[in-house]
Amino acid sequence: MFELEDDDASGREKCYTTVAQLPQFIDPKQHSTTKSPFSAILGHPFVHTVEVTLPKEVYSTIESSLDSKLQKARYARLSMTLSSLIEGGFFNTYIKAGNILMISDGRSGLDNVYTLREGVLRLELGKEEYEKSGLTGKHVRTGGKKHGKERYLVELNLRLPSMLHGKKGFQRIEWAFKNVLNKPAAWLFFDLGTESIGIAEDDTTLKDNNPEIITCEPVRTTYENITTPSFSDLRITEDTSELDFKNLCGEVSEWLAMVSLGSHRVYADDDIDPYLCRYDAPEVGDSKASDLVSLKWHGFIPPTWITQLFITLFRETAPRSCGTSAWFALSVSALGRDAIEGKDGYTIMVLPPVSSNEVESTTGEDKDAKAKDIRHFICWEYVGASIL
Which InterPro entries does the annotation name (predicted)? Predict the structure, then answer.
């Protein structure tokens, strides 16, 4: 109608969708790290926003236990040079012996951006700084135009035995940090090795870096009278065609996004002219008007805390606590994505339990196993196009 131009960038965006069954028990200390949804959580180390959406009656049931069992995450904002990272006190305490997560300011693909994870310092540099530093790296795509400036990636594993003061290779890094890459940068800092979940309020080890300690507090929003599909009737089996699978998952993902945005199109009393918008909620069972609650955390949030949140929600929304209609969606937006084909985030929706009576058994010995309800989930992982 409006003859809009084709958007090549959006055509390169991808969404990887997984539908699977969750285990009936998840051990917080020994959960899987290679299977979805935990692989999606651990695959996004730098996160700036976490949102949980669930029915209001479910939230009212688990609110007190969620507040008591979920620790508050704290992170720090620092101003540091790369040289200060490899100085004695900070280097030995946090990198060699500790486990921290850090990311600098800047835009990937345009500015120098640094990240530190599991002892590996990752430097994304422009061509000029890369050549002057004398460090060894590799060329990376930026997603820019044909004559865009080249970018290079340098990765330094600072936990290697050779990474010690006085070693020849380490002296090369020290020289580059003091003479070329010597501008202070603003960093976000999270200590994964502390029991205080991030950083203690009375921590004095970072006092030389003038830390600003920030606590991630949830913002609660209530959406009333929302047209909500009956997710208890959502079924995706091996017999579901690829087209039906794609359409159904896409509609549910779109509905969750519109709820998060507070769009009036999902309200049960929405009366917009269909000429302007013909959106309808997903046709899953008998839709009804219900109240939803959104909990949103904004800040520097690591995968370990998100895993704790997911497992807590999974346990508290079990059938014995909230009944068979309990569902929740966990949406995460990534921070510091790559300039091209970067991971933008993911959404995990845990569906209401499937009644054991609906599960077919092949032998009489499975009757006891059928007494337990089964929960499935849908996981969407978003991979974006170039940001330039």
Answer: RNase_P_Rpp40
**How would you write 201-236 as a 3-class SS string?**
CCCCCCHHHCCEEEECCCEEEEEEEEEECCHHHCCC
Give the pLDDT band (50/70/90) at residue 121: very high
CA distance 348 to 37: 7
Q: Quote the CA–CA distance of 51 and 260 in Å, as a whole number.
A: 8
**Nearest in space to 292 (alpha carbons), one of 223, 350, 364:** 223
Q: How far apart are CA 46 and CA 299, in angstroms?
A: 10
The residue ranges of every structural domain in the chain are 8-72+218-383, 74-215
- Collapsed DSSP state (helix, strand, coil) of residue 331: strand
How do beta strands 343-350 and 100-104 pair? unpaired
User: What is the SS3 assignment for 319?
Assistant: helix
Give the CB-side neighbour count of residue 78, counting CA atoms within 13 A.
Answer: 23
DSSP state at residue 354:
B
Does pLDDT of 125 surpass 50? yes
N-to-C CA span, the chain: 28
272 within 8 A of 264, measured Cβ to Cβ? yes
pLDDT value of residue 233? 83
Q: Give tens-digit pLDDT for 224-233.
A: 999 999 888 8
Nearest to 38 by CA among 382, 354, 379: 379
Cα torsion angle, 321, 322, 324, 330, sign:
negative
Residue entry with tokens 């929302």: 226
Determine contact, residues 292/57, Cβ cutoff 8 Å: no
Hey, what's the torsion of the CAs at 46, 99, 182, 78, to 10 degrees?
70
**Per-residue DSSP letters for 2-53?**
--PPP-HHHHT-EEEEEEEEPPS---TTS--SSSTTHHHHHT---EEEEEEE
225 token code pair: 């009278």
In the beta sheet, which residues pair with residue 102? 116, 189
Rounded to the nearest 10 degrees, the angle between the axes of helix 303-316 and helix 56-69 is 130
Quote the Cα angle for 158-112-169, to 5°: 30
Say if residue 208's pLDDT is above 80: no
Q: What average pLDDT does range 148-160 have in this prediction?
A: 87
